[in-house]
UniProtKB/TrEMBL annotation:
SUPFAM superfamilies: Aconitase iron-sulfur domain, LeuD/IlvD-like
Enzymatic class: lyase
Species whose genome carries this gene: Oncorhynchus mykiss (Rainbow trout)
GO biological process: tricarboxylic acid cycle
Catalyzed reactions per annotation: citrate = D-threo-isocitrate
Function: Catalyzes the isomerization of citrate to isocitrate via cis-aconitate.
Every Aconitase/3-isopropylmalate dehydratase large subunit alpha/beta/alpha domain range: 69-505
Family from the record: Belongs to the aconitase/IPM isomerase family.
Official protein name in the record: Aconitate hydratase, mitochondrial
Length: 793
């Protein structure tokens, strides 16, 4: 049965009486132009064009549109002729802007340099947030990062200046917080080279995580392709209160939909409960939508977004959005592909984990569940912040909890770290006293950067292999992600719950019902946290950390990459398809399917963290050959349940995955990887696709792919294929050779066939599916999307 959107009338009530219907286009033509951001005064918000395109598409489809459809279809390259079918057709879109974090920007800019184009075609920015390791505290860690990463920062700054890309220096903050504060606005279509780009959906934007090659397309002025998303509706009723926070909404949704339940879909939140959530709270929910595989998530424009825009110096955009309010909410009567309903009055605080972000537990249950499964109860470290939860409100609610403990003479029993989301947040919480409270309770304020959330953490309180528990307000908790220790049990919760658990020092503490013991021996309960959504005074911007591209252009500037650098390497084109079938590809590794992980029966994950680890490897993100030494070193080999231990079929000896791959390549032997479900879950890092291609891989065959990784593989000339019958996964043995047949007639919707030769002389034959369209087949034939771009110039 069809499900339906919230009525526009209710949204208009939420926005106030100033909202009016659109009826006289001349009124809008007369309006003054409004800049997209203060950094790009000559690029303007174009709601008129968006509205025009939406009207064309609505008339063509003859039905009401969801909000996400309005924004996505409103950015179609050809709204008149584009074939539109949810979940089936590929859309050609014109995004408004591009954002890149420093770890992925290196490869994106190297690819853009290879394109030979003089300037980016759309507003674009680089954000330095990934290369700062948490070690001893914010200022010293930042200084150290600037020193050891000077070559990379200089490359990104000079490349930005030459090609017209804005550059946010190290210390500016996390890319997604900077976007929310400066670049996101209702109705914008933004792509970013980070999987948590959907954070901007909290401001009514469609913000989508992509690989660097997709960013290059948009920066080159080429229409960007996206498979037409399905739309999952999440209807919120009731009101958030007490210990329940916006984070608990997405923790609950993750438990319902699982890590792949949102694949191929945009999650669209609506309903009367939306108005009880702050703008930054909505951003938290959209941010962690990446953990359910969603293309992105979005909320409808309302007064909470208007207030945030005004407080961040963008009142002119808010006023314009008010005039186009009907455009920025779903049409009455629109249909969703599926629906989830959550009553916020009944929602309880949650904590998810360990080892996967969709293992959801109400706080009331986690203690007993931990005991049953043998998870350590002692909380070693509590970590708050990250791109998911580092807003002013988040820090205020955490400080509210910490202040209660301090007033009773208590400090944290666990180690405690705080990561501000941006320089603006750092300066403002320092001015308003939150930093002092969090420090006094035992916390250490880290640099304005990703830090431990992405493995940039020099952790020394436990040894590798030592079983322990940490709790974070982050988004991901894959095995070994935060600290490179596979025995660390990482749990994800709201910042206020993490703060409470750090004070109590134990996982089985439920602040809703449990008591703490004050310094004088009396028992007391923590009161539910309370804090201002936004500062009463204006935000303190802190230090100026933005570098504008030169007004005169960068044609006279040089971007040099030393041939002896270990951090940066210019790219060489990948070889073209030779014109025939792929014969006798060697199985490099068959990634394990189901297995027991620390007492949990889970599907064997092969995330992008397993394919191309972060942490200490981040320093090689601009050097393809060096970063390739981490390829698949975290994947579990089904042959022996070992990690980074596979048999070299040419020598009979066991070695590391990258070493064996290099040996095969040197001997002219191409290879294939076989995997399980949701292969490539997690980060947008295209290195997980570049590395296999660089080391001689031709094909990845799995039961299913995560969206971004599948696209990244296609962009680099790889063949991402799926078993037509998932049971065929079990027919493949680690020493098999595989031939891919039918490439001479490779066509959209037409399966390829495979012949699997076993070492005992027998063979199996079966069908493999793909999702290539005609343009993507051209990428494969040219050797990569970048090769094809250059052919067309």
């Amino acid at each position: 049965m069809a499900t339906y959107c919230l009525t526009v009338a209710r949204l208009q009530l939420a926005l106030g009486q100033g909202v009016r219907r659109l009826h006289v286009s001349a009124a809008f033509n007369a309006k003054a132009k409004v800049s997209m951001s203060r950094f790009e005064p000559s690029n303007f918000v174009n709601y008129e064009k968006l509205n025009e395109n939406v009207n064309i598409v609505r008339k063509r489809l003859n039905r009401p549109l969801t909000l996400s459809e309005k924004i996505v279809y409103g950015h179609l390259d050809d709204p008149v002729g584009q074939d539109i079918a949810r979940g089936r057709t590929y859309l050609r879109l014109r995004p408004d802007r591009v954002a890149m974090q420093d770890a992925t920007a290196q490869m994106a800019m190297l690819q853009f340099i290879s394109s030979g184009l003089p300037q980016v075609a759309v507003p674009s920015t680089i954000h330095c947030d990934h290369l700062i390791e948490a070690q001893i505290g914010g200022a010293k860690d930042l200084a150290r990062a600037k020193d050891i990463n000077a070559e990379v920062y200089n490359f990104l700054a000079s490349a930005g200046a030459k090609y017209g890309v804005g550059f946010w220096k190290p210390g500016s903050g996390i890319i997604h917080q900077i976007i929310l504060e400066n670049y996101a606005y209702p109705g914008v279509l933004l792509i970013g080279t980070d999987s948590h780009t959907p954070n901007g959906g909290g401001l009514g934007s469609i913000c989508i995580g992509v690989g660097g090659a997709d960013a290059v397309d948009v920066m080159a002025g080429i229409p960007w392709e996206l498979k037409c998303p399905n739309v999952i509706g999440v209807k919120l009723t009731g009101k958030l209160s007490g210990w329940t926070s916006p984070k608990d909404v997405i923790l609950k949704v993750a438990g319902i939909l699982t890590v792949k339940g949102g694949t191929g879909a945009i999650v669209e939140y609506h309903g009367p409960g939306v108005d009880s959530i702050s703008c930054t709270g909505m951003a938290t929910i959209c941010n962690m939508g990446a953990e359910i595989g969603a293309t992105t998530s979005v909320f409808p424009y309302n007064h909470r977004m208007k207030t945030y825009l005004e407080k961040t110096g963008r009142g002119d955009i808010a006023a314009l959005a008010d005039d186009y309010a009907d455009l920025l909410v779903p049409d009455a009567g629109c249909e969703y592909d599926s629906m989830v309903e959550i009553n916020l009055d009944e929602l309880k605080p949650h904590i998810n984990g360990p080892f996967t972000p969709d293992l959801a537990h109400p706080m009331a249950d986690i203690g007993a569940t931990a005991v049953k499964n043998g998870w350590p109860l002692q909380v070693k470290v509590g970590l708050i912040g990250s791109c998911t939860n580092s807003s002013y409100e988040d820090m205020g609610r955490s400080a509210s909890v910490a202040k209660q403990a301090l007033d009773k003479g208590l400090k944290c029993k666990a180690a405690f770290t705080i990561t501000p989301g941006s320089e603006q947040i750092r300066a403002t919480i320092e001015r308003d006293g939150y930093s002092k409270i969090l420090g006094d309770v035992g916390g250490m304020v880290l640099a304005n950067a990703c830090g431990p959330c992405i493995g940039q953490w020099d952790r020394r309180d436990v040894k590798k292999g030592e079983k322990n528990t940490i709790v974070t307000s982050y988004n991901r908790n894959f095995t070994a992600r935060n600290d490179a220790n596979p025995a660390t049990h990482a749990f994800v919760a709201s910042p206020e719950i993490v703060t409470a658990l750090a004070i109590a020092g134990t996982l089985d503490f439920n602040p809703e019902v449990d008591y703490l013991t004050a310094a004088n021996g009396e028992k007391f309960k923590l009161k539910p946290p309370s804090a201002d959504e936004l500062p009463k005074l204006d935000f303190d911007p802190g230090q100026d950390t933005y570098q504008h591209p030169p007004a005169e252009g960068g044609s006279k500037l040089r971007v040099d990459v030393s041939p002896t650098s270990t951090r940066l390497q210019l790219l060489e084109p990948f070889d073209k398809w030779a014109g025939g079938d792929l014969e006798d590809l060697q199985i490099l590794i068959k990634v394990s399917g189901q297995r027991i992980i620390w007492g949990l029966f889970r599907r064997g994950k092969c995330t992008t963290d397993h394919i191309s680890a972060a942490g200490p490897w981040l320093k090689f993100r601009g050097h393809l050959d060096n970063i390739s030494n981490n390829m698949l070193i975290g994947a579990v080999n089904i042959e022996n349940d070992g990690v980074n231990k596979i048999k070299n079929q040419l020598t009979g000896e066991y070695g590391g995955v990258p070493d064996v791959a290099r040996h095969y390549k040197a001997n002219g032997l191409s290879w294939v990887v076989v995997g399980d479900d949701n292969y490539g879950e997690g980060s947008s890092r295209e290195h997980a696709a570049l590395e296999p291609r660089h080391l001689g891989g031709r094909c990845i065959i799995v039961k299913s792919f995560a969206r971004i990784h599948e696209t990244n593989l296609k962009k680099q000339g790889m063949l991402p294929l799926t078993f037509q019958n998932p049971a065929d996964y079990d027919k493949i043995r680690p020493d098999d050779k595989i031939s891919i047949k039918g490439l001479a007639t490779f066509a959209p919707g037409k399966p390829l066939s495979t012949v699997v030769k076993h070492s005992d002389g027998t063979k199996d034959e079966f069908q493999l599916n793909h999702t290539f369209n005609e343009t993507q087949i051209e990428w494969f034939q040219a050797g990569s999307a970048l090769n094809r771009m250059k052919e067309l110039q």
